[in-house]
Amino acid sequence: MSVIYSKVVSELISAHKDIWNSYTEHSFLEQLANGSLPNAQFLKYLKQDYIFLIHFSRAWALATAKSDSLDEMIITSSIMHSLINEEMALHIRVCEREGINIKDLKSTVETPENIAYTRYVLEAGYSGDFLDLLISLSPCVLGYGQIGLRLKNMFTSQKYKEWIDNYSSPEYQNVCFSVGKLIDEAVSRRIGNNYHKIGKWKILNQYFRKATLLEIEFWEMGLKP
Amino acid sequence: MSVIYSKVVSELISAHKDIWNSYTEHSFLEQLANGSLPNAQFLKYLKQDYIFLIHFSRAWALATAKSDSLDEMIITSSIMHSLINEEMALHIRVCEREGINIKDLKSTVETPENIAYTRYVLEAGYSGDFLDLLISLSPCVLGYGQIGLRLKNMFTSQKYKEWIDNYSSPEYQNVCFSVGKLIDEAVSRRIGNNYHKIGKWKILNQYFRKATLLEIEFWEMGLKP
Amino acid sequence: MSVIYSKVVSELISAHKDIWNSYTEHSFLEQLANGSLPNAQFLKYLKQDYIFLIHFSRAWALATAKSDSLDEMIITSSIMHSLINEEMALHIRVCEREGINIKDLKSTVETPENIAYTRYVLEAGYSGDFLDLLISLSPCVLGYGQIGLRLKNMFTSQKYKEWIDNYSSPEYQNVCFSVGKLIDEAVSRRIGNNYHKIGKWKILNQYFRKATLLEIEFWEMGLKP
Amino acid sequence: MSVIYSKVVSELISAHKDIWNSYTEHSFLEQLANGSLPNAQFLKYLKQDYIFLIHFSRAWALATAKSDSLDEMIITSSIMHSLINEEMALHIRVCEREGINIKDLKSTVETPENIAYTRYVLEAGYSGDFLDLLISLSPCVLGYGQIGLRLKNMFTSQKYKEWIDNYSSPEYQNVCFSVGKLIDEAVSRRIGNNYHKIGKWKILNQYFRKATLLEIEFWEMGLKP
Questions:
Q1: Which of D48, D123, D202, D212 to mutate to test the interface with B (most CBs of B within 10 A)?
Q2: Helix (H), strand (E) counts: chain D
Q3: Regarding the domain with residue range B7-222, which homologous superfamily does it belong to in the CATH classification?
């Protein structure tokens, strides 16, 4: 995949290419692209993703609390703002069209895979610092950007076009570039540019790897009956 | 003072009337109203308050992370948003007019009184729950609303009118009513309406009292040479 | 089951009887009792539980940081102390006997089920208060006590007797009674004795339910190839 | 001063020599050494330090929760253990001899200077990572070790000999060497040995500087009537 949102995250992707591909080219996504994904599975995923977005937004709010400068606070809080106002709107809109109202959405019980991923990221943020949190958030934000572009180029069915359009849209791609820049600058400011041999880099690699693995589990969950 | 932003906070004010009055009727404020406050002291306060606002915004972001519902997330994050975008603008504007540019502002060294108050609130939020955090934030938010209205009624000098106008403005008063409602509902949802005899109420009283005392220290700092 | 370590937790168990029984009478445990559990599964569980204990100990340390009194600090830190010194020793001892040395143990990769449970508890502690954390910890601590006694009464094979002896031992049972007392007093001090109708009780019920569900997932993981 | 507990902290001391000396050679300490410190001031300090120790112990517990390995957990929790069991005992013993019983001690109201320091350290720990927390803790732990040795060499009055003996004792000096080693290894593991030019080092310097300044404020408080 050629889009590069962040120098740092690109290095992490290369270092964990095996699982990164399993995540971004998961069979759930192939089925989205060719329209073979059963509707029930897509709705299951959407409902879980609604709960996911709430915890994910909390994690971005935590990033604001853990920011080191007003600039970092402004970026992280604007991402948080667009998550709870714009990205959630897509979920609510699509669900409503499919006959799932907001009350049903709110009473959805989160799956273990959902708990695993969201609490992993939040706990990384609470126990670690701003970098640990951002790197744990990156597979989701930037992975969805990459997935959006990839599916945009290969989709053969209109069935899930709205979802594909959302993550390949210029708006979402801009969020990815902002987050990528934020990560590169945050890493550079804190641990410089020769970070490859220090322990902190190993720690960041672990956060990236586990978060990516938990993304795979999330797709797996979407395919479960 | 007759304005009541919140039932719960009104009870806390009554229970700690002695120090609440020392805070909201502090001689720093009398001097703001009659214009006798030396410019140097006002600028000292403004510069410290700029740093204060950064940590205070972080505390509101933490409140979003600790929210229990999307509604609480939306309110807390909108307050955080107006703090870093609107309230800070007043500080930057007034400081610039007085010959303090943004670079000077950013290089201000925070005083112990500033550290004490901001870290107290943040730590209350991290160690406690959403209620502990909100109650620790309340003396500042609602106290400034009350102070704004009081000074609006008694000011005899135009010197610090812009500051007084800001906190007595309908916009700021609306923030106070929103925060008051948020607190009342958050308390009611979590510990009901008969909370006066449980330990949690004692804990909340301690947070309120200490935060109020630290507000007094903050004014004292403003008067120090 | 007749042993009652805590009034509060007994109420929670009754309210979630369905999943509590699925947890404490899980087929993993039946197989431990009758010796039919394959050795490989037991070792898989032990290795995961070793990592689990590290995060669980961190959660108890967090409970000390979130304590409200010196008494609470002393109890929570002594539990933490016995976890990393005594309970871990059992794991290391049994693993060594089975040919798994400490280096293997340390290089174990945690499963998603393990991540889900440990991070859930830690995040509950960070985002919530002392009560939220304790209640999230309770299904594990007290559940294992109950399981130990139950298996002690029904085991028909010596194969896993050491494990059963550990959790049915007077030492472990005492830990359960201490934790039970700690919980009852912490609840009583903070939200009194008429807590059944307030929102905080609903929140505590959610923490208890989800933690119990994640315990079931943990056993399921133990049975997976 | 020639004792070196830690390579990293020695560098920090050199970089902040001005305030480090103001802290470790504060007039409160000169008065302890020559016995001119009024008893009332010493008792005021002791009572505040009792509360300080509680929050300081919580900060060490938080360090355990934020540890990256079992080894770090064992060291941090053993320091925490000796703080609440041994160091506190000295305070209680001395206070009792001076007619202040444990009930008085527990009802002491913490001063703003005490709040400032303890919450600063705890918040550094919550918002930052393990390193941020340890460096914020270091001026107290290692500074008291250095102060103990210095006063041991220069004291001219028996009046506060027990206090001086405590911090110059082999037991306390050993704690200092353990903490020093812990810090050096934690820094080396995470940011290597060429950390002087990265932003994280600047952040750690800020934590060290502010914590040292807040130590000075604490002594100042001790001298206030």
A1: D123
A2: 12, 0
A3: Heme oxygenase-like (1.20.910.10)
